[in-house]
Amino acid sequence: MKGMVVRGATVVDSSGVRRADVAIDDREIVAVESSIDAAGGRRVVDASGCLVLPGLVDLHAHLRDPGNPECETVESASRAAARGGYTAVVAMPNTDPPIDSVEVVRYVQERATRAMTEVAVAGTITAGRKGERLAPMGEMFEAGVRLFTDDGAGVQDALLMRRAMEYAGGLGAIIAEHCEEARLAYRGHMHEGRWSSFLGIPGIPAEAEEVMAARDIALSRLTGCRLHLLHISTTGTLDLVRKAFKAGLPVTGEVAPHHLSLSDAEVASYDPQFKVNPPLRPAEDVRSLVNALVSGEVVVATDHAPHPADSKELPFDQAPPGMLGLETALGVVWTVLTSGSGLSTGLDDMPVLSFEEAAAVVVEAMSVVPARIAGLEGAQGGTVRAGSAANLCVFDPAATWVVDRNRLASLSANTPYDGRKLTGRVRHTIFRGEPVVVDGEPLR
Ligand SMILES: [Zn+2]
Fold first, then answer.
1. Total structural domains within the chain
2. How do residues 227-236 score in pLDDT, each as one tens digit?
């Protein structure tokens, strides 16, 4: 193996921005210098005009494996992830069966050995994800699980959540909550507000998310356990998170690309591609979320949720919630940050960032901090320098492209961005020193 040189790029990482070539040998970066020749037969990967970033890390991906191989598998999701510039994803445990035992953890880990990214396995908080009694978190922790969640639903029982946080806190694990008070959200299909009244679709109030976020932040204070809030979608939840930061609590939060780019006005099409949980929110919330991202208060996680085509052809109130995210996340975030506007109408008036500023936000919110939250630091989310693991995303910040649902690497096609034009495209992805995506195409 002769290694490679990534040539002609601008390197952006936590230490700043510089023009440099990157030499890789085996699984490691061996040199980052202004000019490196390809002596010794090193493969040259052209990155002119591109940014070289540490590989992206997704804290929230539904790989549908085990359970729904027609929708997605560990392998197909990792191909979609690699195409999106990711070199690591956290596999959410609401599979069939759920990842609530060492056996299922091992199954996903075994599948992950053939993946095109690192796959960190999350375990459930409760057995069967039923919200009744705790899953064997200690055993799953021993098997490598660092993040526990019942995502898809919130843990409704406050006492059970307290016990989960006491236990996870003792292990040094993190509890990730899907904040949704089930009775408040009952039978809702979109955000409760002006659009839901106009369209006659039953709504889910912002408060269904906020009451559970408030409860869990209080329980983090009580137990000392690290708490990660999944897919934050409202201004009210952001306010709670800021208060938690001020109090010095070990709380982090993530926002999904669709909540940063689309508003509930999209539901006027009655197109189930815009159905997601938590639902798309009004423009004011989208603006708050983008501001929180720019100020470093939240990270980005995709909530990649593949669904079979026929399920998204059902009427809005019968279709399952969820959208694909891995292949479009960086393009969507880049488009929003550099254009100062979202992808729904009425979403202008947002901060407009230079390429350098936007890249700094992306590095922190889509790589460095997620790697730390997932317990993957070391191998992921590092600085681009000699001695670091060679997990890189080579990104063309000026390339424009139109999302085509029929040309995705995912086995599903339920993207809300079909036909939309995005700015910024992943050109190459390098995982463990090997190019796995070249010129936008997965190599296997
Ligand atoms: Zn969720």
1. 1
2. 999 999 999 9
Kindly list the strands in the beta sheet with 86-91, ordered across the sheet, starting from the edge strand earlier in the chain: 56-61, 86-91, 118-121
Q: Say what the pTM is.
A: 0.98
Question: Which pLDDT score is estimated for 38?
Answer: 78
In-domain check, residue 193 = yes
In contact, 389 and 380? CB cutoff 8 Å: yes
pLDDT of residue 390: 98
Q: Which of 303, 349, 404, 439 is catalytic?
A: 303
Crossing angle (nearest 10°) for helices 158-171 and 206-223 = 50
In a domain? residue 46 = no
Residue found under tokens 């069967």? 128
> What is residue 115's three-state secondary structure?
coil
H/E stretch holding 392? strand 392-402
* Residue 35 located in a structural domain: no
Distance 180 CA to ligand 1 centre (A): 9
- Could you give the 3-state DSSP secondary structure of residue 242? helix
Domain span at residue 188?
57-383
CA of 347 relative to ligand 1 center, distance in Å: 24
**Separation of CA 64 and ligand 1 centre (Å):** 14
- Tell me which amino acid residue 407 is: R
Tell me how many degrees the CA angle 337-342-347 measures, rounded to the nearest 5. 120
- 151: domain CATH number is 3.20.20.140
Residue 1 pLDDT class (50, 70, 90 cuts): low
The alpha carbon of 263 and the centre of ligand 1 are apart by a number of angstroms equal to 18
- What is the per-residue pLDDT for 39? 73
In a domain, 426, yes or no: no
Respond yes or no: is residue 58 known to be catalytic. no
- Calculate how far, in angstroms, residue 150's C-alpha sits from the geometric centre of ligand 1: 8
